[in-house]
């Protein structure tokens, strides 16, 4: 059952999307493996219920850069499996501790039907903890993560959480947006959220030149879809979720 824990889908241009279909839908995030010429990028890491690294099709000896879009449990459970770990300085201390108040793992543990299938025999949600994964490098607005043939610019997009980042491949017009924007109920009412900053971030996304957006949850978005969601947020008519 561990072999089939992650669902994989090729998205073109060296991008593979992984997801956790057996996890409660509130905590089933999208994870991405992006192949570059000189290095590969892994963006987000799921709940950490089953090792992620073996589920990736990695080339031995190739440099691997792991980037967390933000601190929440559904994105950082397997972050500790990677040696090179990047994230935003606003959440650097949180990655080193991975306590419930920052990751919200306690919300997952208390969910009826947290998982649809057990990740391993005798597993119970009560035992689940997110392992600390101190950053080896912080990345902030404007910095470039270089894979050789693909470059990703870091966008600091606070609102959902203080340290939320997006990764933008400007030449391909591809954005990985984490939980900042996706098709589905957005979350802006957590202790780490700021609706004021979220509004500024949405305004920025409306003005962004991008074609294809991979969100932290849900299906891939076109620029028009993303901008419509951002406008709905600013008008107060967007779908919202609470956890
Ligand atoms: Zn989140
Ligand atoms: Zn999420």
Broad shape:
globular
| Rg result | 17 Å
| Molecules bound to protein | zinc ion
CATH homologous superfamily assignment:
Ribonuclease Z/Hydroxyacylglutathione hydrolase-like
Tally of DSSP β-strands: 13
Ordered list of secondary-structure elements with their pairings:
Elements: E1 7-12, E2 15-19, E3 30-35, E4 39-43, E5 63-67, H1 73-76, E6 85-87, H2 92-97, H3 100-103, H4 105-109, E7 137-138, E8 144-146, E9 151-156, E10 165-169, E11 174-178, H5 195-206, E12 212-215, E13 221-222, H6 223-235
Parallel strand pairs: 4-5, 5-6, 6-7, 11-12
Antiparallel strand pairs: 1-2, 2-3, 3-4, 8-9, 9-10, 10-11, 12-13
Helix pairs in contact: 5-6
One zinc ion binds at residues 29, 72, 74-75, 179, 216-217.
How would you sum up this structure, described in words?
By secondary structure, this protein is α/β, with parallel strands linked by helices. The protein has a single domain (7-235), classed as 4-Layer Sandwich (Metallo-beta-lactamase, Chain A), CATH 3.60.15.10. The protein has six helices and 13 strands. The strands form two sheets. It has a seven-stranded mixed β-sheet, with no helix packed on it. A six-stranded mixed β-sheet has the order 8-9-10-11-12-13. A hairpin with a 3-residue loop joins strand 3 (30-35) and strand 4 (39-43). Helix 5 packs antiparallel against helix 6. The two termini are 28 Å apart. Residues 70, 72, 160, 179 line the site of one zinc ion.
């Amino acid at each position: 059952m561990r072999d089939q824990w992650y669902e994989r889908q090729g998205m073109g241009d060296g991008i593979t999307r992984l997801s956790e279909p057996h996890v409660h839908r509130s905590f089933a995030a999208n994870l991405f493996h992006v192949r570059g010429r000189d290095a590969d990028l892994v963006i987000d890491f799921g709940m950490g219920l089953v090792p992620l690294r073996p589920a990736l099709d990695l080339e031995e000896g190739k440099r691997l850069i792991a980037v967390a879009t933000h601190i929440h449990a559904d994105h950082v459970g397997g972050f500790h499996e990677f040696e090179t770990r990047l994230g935003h300085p606003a959440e650097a201390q949180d990655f080193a501790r991975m306590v419930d108040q920052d990751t919200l793992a306690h919300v997952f543990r208390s969910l009826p039907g947290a998982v649809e299938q057990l990740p391993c025999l005798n597993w119970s949600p009560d035992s689940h903890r997110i392992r600390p994964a101190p950053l080896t490098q912080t990345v902030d607005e404007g910095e470039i993560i270089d894979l050789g043939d693909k470059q990703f610019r870091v966008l600091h997009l606070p609102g959902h959480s203080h340290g939320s980042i997006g990764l933008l491949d400007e030449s391909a017009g591809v954005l990985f947006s984490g939980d900042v924007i996706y098709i589905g109920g957005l979350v802006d009412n957590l202790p780490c959220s700021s609706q004021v900053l979220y509004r500024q971030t949405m305004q920025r996304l409306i003005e962004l030149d991008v074609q294809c957006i991979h969100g932290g949850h849900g299906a891939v978005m076109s620029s028009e879809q993303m901008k419509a969601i951002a406008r709905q947020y600013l008008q107060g008519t967007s779908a919202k979720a609470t956890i």
